[in-house]
Amino acid sequence: MTKTPTLVLGSNSPRRRELLSLGGWIFTVRPADVDESLLLGEAPGEYVLRLAETKVRACASNAQPGETIIAADTTVTIDGDILGKPASAAEAVAMLTRLRGRRHQVFTGIAVKDMDSGRLLTRKCVSEVPMRRYTDAEMQAYVRSGNPLDKAGAYAIQHARFHPVEDFSGCTASVMGLPLCHLAHSLKSVGIFPKTDIPTACQASLHYDCPIHSRAMNGEEVG
Fold first, then answer.
1. Distance between CA 9 and CA 30 in Å, rounded?
2. Please, which pLDDT band fits residue 2 given cuts at 50, 70 and 90?
3. Of residues 73, 116, 136, 209, which has the active-site annotation?
4. Phi and psi dihedrals of 215, rounded to 5?
């Protein structure tokens, strides 16, 4: 049964707001303030799913009947290490230097809680991301712009001038922080459907021909 959604996004990320709006939904923003510290021995997939669920539960603590809460968390990992948001320009340079010319993984966990039914759904998207061999000058100019400082791994895949990623064949929206096709599948499970064709809207907005959208819309945890 389709219902009229009252969606709440538990994030203050402008990228997640932008992506969620592509579904044509009306939503409110209610940022969740949670401890994002990594637990001892916690794997990247466990980490992003735990934080997404923690954010949803934090928002749900003062939610209203009829609301559906959405939250997500994204992290970058390479050589078994998790790279969060850089605390300084120097740390951003160190992260980008480490990633340059190599492949790494981006993990995004999403959580959806339907307040009427009490259902809590979680999904994970893992993307293999190949970085190009950008020059030191390109990297330094990008860091000076300030753009890397609020992003896991110190980069934005969609940054038009720096364009750090090449030959990518996964979910760009997931690397940006909110895998829309995966989210649409979860929302469908609680009777909420998009007002637009998600794959078409996402690809048009991101200027990207996504090779995996059909599988993601069908529920596969592809990245």
1. 6
2. low
3. 73
4. -65, -40
